[in-house]
Write a structure and sequence with these properties.
By secondary structure, the protein is an alpha+beta fold. The protein contains two helices and seven strands; from the N terminus they run ββαβββββα. It has two domains: about 90 residues, CD59; about 30 residues. The chain has a five-stranded antiparallel sheet, with no helix packed on it. Strands 1-3 form a two-stranded antiparallel sheet. β4 and β5 form a beta hairpin. The radius of gyration is 19 Å and the shape is globular. The N and C termini lie far apart (about 75 Å).
């Protein structure tokens, strides 16, 4: 067997791991020993897919192909992907990118302002 690395292995699709893959618990059942697959996995990978503002997180074991760090790509039909490779145990646990969180908070705040404004107009 090759070098043993432990990674998180999950997909945030509602039909798979769902939100538990986005918000990894401190002691996660998604942690696996990548040697179990016997595929010479020596790295962990995290993929963030954004298709029409539907964001998916995929965490998995990876081979040594590619360079360490993150790389972003935009595909056809404006599909955005961010790939991150790392070589330490459980290193693919990084949270959702801050740009996504910031956008989510901004939309939430804007929605609150609209609701409050409409409510105030109905009162007066």
């Amino acid at each position: 067997l090759g070098l043993c690395i432990k990674c998180y292995n999950c997909n945030s699709s509602p039909f798979q791991s769902g939100r538990f893959c986005v918000e990894l618990p401190r002691k996660s059942s998604f942690e696996i020993d990548c040697d179990l697959f016997q595929k010479n996995y020596t790295r962990c990978r995290k993929v963030v897919q954004n298709v029409d503002d539907d964001v998916r997180i995929i965490r998995q074991c990876a081979t040594s192909d590619g360079k360490l760090g993150c790389e972003s790509r935009v595909g056809t039909k404006n599909i955005k992907m961010k790939y991150c490779l790392c070589d330490k145990d459980r290193c693919n646990s990084a949270p959702v990118p801050t740009s996504f969180i910031s956008r989510f908070l901004l939309y939430g705040f804007a929605s609150m302002v609209v609701v409050i404004t409409r409510t105030m107009h109905n009162v007066f």
